[in-house]
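Give me the fold.
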Amino acid sequence: MSKKIWFLSNGCIIRIGTACKEMTPEQIKIRYEQNFIDNEYMLKKKSSMADLSFRELKIYYAEKGYHVLDNNSFEKNLNLRNQNGEYNLLGELLADRNNIPLIFVKFHGSNKASISETSNFGYGCLLTSYTKIKNRLIAENICISDTTVRPRVDTYLYDIDCVNEAILNALVHNDWTITEPQISMFSDRIEILSHGGLPNGMTKKQFFEGISKPRNVTLMRIFLSMGLVEHTGHGIPTIVERYGEEAFEIENNYIKCTIHFDKEVMEKSNKTIVQELNTVQHALLKPSEEKVLKAILTNPDDSALKMSEKIGLSQRTVERALTRLKQIGRIERIGNKKDGRWIVIK
């Protein structure tokens, strides 16, 4: 049977300037939680690995001008061990090697039916993992330039500052006892998913206003020391201003941020890719391959022998042309060798 704790103001005094007054029940509750309830689960939870090193983390601190002490002092100052002296989850996240992945997935279309590429930027210091994923998303950000005006106008596939803020929020505020954040790229958007929902006591209104209440306070301080985040709370409002509140899907156990791509950049880049591909493919075709391609367009059911008779090439030459056209993705065989047919891929 659980006991309910009543926070009564009798005898609880707070000094404000030179005066004293009784604290409200809410003020008493806050001080009780600060002193007796440790919400920093990362500091308590034991690491899944017993032997950790922090060479990369020390380099980051040294580059920022911090004086790096011996191992014991360094680990103690950053709270990398729990009260029993064992490495904790925070230590594991920041170690040179760990068992925590950070997956970036690209999909062919606008859903998860077909994976194009999977990259793992984890299994190491979280600061390094963040840098790798940020650089990857910078590289993925297509730019279309309008040179008909001066100065020229550059339009990007997505706002990299907003994407960066979303990733930082996902890393710092994620509930790492559930699983790692997920970063997915589709043909029309990027999705950044973090686990745990809103921190205790935070409302959606406060979230959208940029009121900072980090779930992982100590991890937040480390990112702050590295100059990666600020306490200004501008991250969420920056995303909302550019993409609207609808960019966020907030549930009890997760928060998903969706960054939609610029439609004009998508259309122009797709046209450019198709044009370049067609140009390259046509430039690579030999005269014999061009003849075979035209023959397939006229009679897709013909065998190599029939084609050779119609276009005046040897059967061996036609077969070599068919093989190469398949290799470069210009044609495809549907059905078996005897009863099948060729199709030309535009």
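The longest strand covers residues 189-195.
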